[in-house]
Amino acid sequence: MQEAITQYLQENGFETFAPKAVLFDMDGVLYDSMPNHAIAWQRSMAEFNIEMTAADAYATEGARGIDTIRLMVKKQKGEDITLEEAQHMYDVKTRIFHDMAEAPIFPGTIQLMEKMVKAGMQVIVVTGSGQRPLIQRLVNDFEVFLSPKKVVTAYDVEKGKPAPDPYLKGLEKAGGLKPWEAIVVENAPLGIRAGVAAHIFTVAINSGPLPDEVLTREGANLLFPSISDFSQKWNELLRYINPRPSLQDHNWNLKYKEVMDYMAKYRRRPSKHRLEEHTMLSWVKYNKKLMATGKMKTDRIERFNHLLEQAEKFRRVNQHAYLTHTEQEPDIWIQ
Question: Are the C-beta atoms of 180 and 18 separated by less than 8 Å?
Fold first, then answer.
């Protein structure tokens, strides 16, 4: 697990992994509903002379229903149908699905949510469904952990999975979190692709008939055979995602103090024209880049902005001391 987290950080250029929310897909993750969905898809599409197999249903799971329908019609009939036409076909699928027996919650789901909330994390659900009865059931079943405001549905985004938009919306509903401050839990290839595209650590739950490699090929950071198995391994994962203050944090604080103490003592900023000050200057430049790209840890932003404000007070001092240089070369301190 530690190796998976390290690889995630390296691939995305993040310096920390500190999740504050878990973004769950619904069908196939919280509910054992995909067998019913597969049957409903096949029966409904047959009414419109569209052939859809169970494999097709699993392969397109997570996408908005209207997007799946438009794709299938285009592929088989070569027609571009309107959103209204797709919605009509999706309504037929919805009716068939709701006439079937209610899908059960997967074993271990409640226990896993309890552990996550205990660890101080929010629970968010990100689904491609637009079926209001399903959303209402979701809120009722998980009311201890979930509020209606913490659910992302097909109506919240213009682009569904595999686009990152649904999970980016989930980060927004969680309070404007950064990608490294969340975990995605998915079971479908398109959903995993969406989580990875949003640069969020993505856990795959292979609750269906697809081979494991289909999910890992989409970029899943971890894979479990069931939500129950993930629940059993949660405390092991928690050791790496909620550690004591790291050596990295300790070193950052030391360098921050070094730069602040230097400016307070000498009443000027470190300069690129003094070799002994290059380390401090490189640290400032690196952190400015992190902040500009949105990759700085949230709890560092205010302090680093304060450092830049202090540095700005000494800008004229540096210009006076190194006038011949600053007239010719850009000042890395300037935003």
Answer: yes
Backbone angles phi, psi at 63, to 5 degrees: -75, 160
Cβ contacts of 142 within 8 Å, gap of 6 or more: 30, 110, 113, 123, 125
Query: Which residue from 6, 14, 11, 7 is spatially nearest to 289, judged by alpha carbons?
Result: 14
Rounded to 5 degrees, what angle do the CA atoms 248, 253, 258 make?
A: 125
Per-residue pLDDT 10s for the chain (335 aa) are: 889 999 999 999 888 899 999 999 998 899 988 888 889 899 999 999 999 988 888 878 777 888 899 999 999 999 999 999 999 999 998 899 888 888 899 999 999 999 999 998 999 999 987 778 778 889 899 998 998 899 999 889 999 899 999 999 999 999 999 999 999 999 999 999 999 999 999 999 998 888 999 999 999 999 999 999 999 999 999 988 855 456 677 788 899 999 999 999 988 888 888 888 888 988 999 899 999 998 888 889 999 999 999 888 887 555 444 444 444 445 566 55
The pair of structure tokens assigned to 166 is: 């649904």
Helices (H), ranges, 99-148: 109-118, 132-141
Please report which helix (H) or strand (E) contains residue 204, including its range: strand 201-205
Angle at 274 between CA 273 and CA 275, to 5 degrees: 115
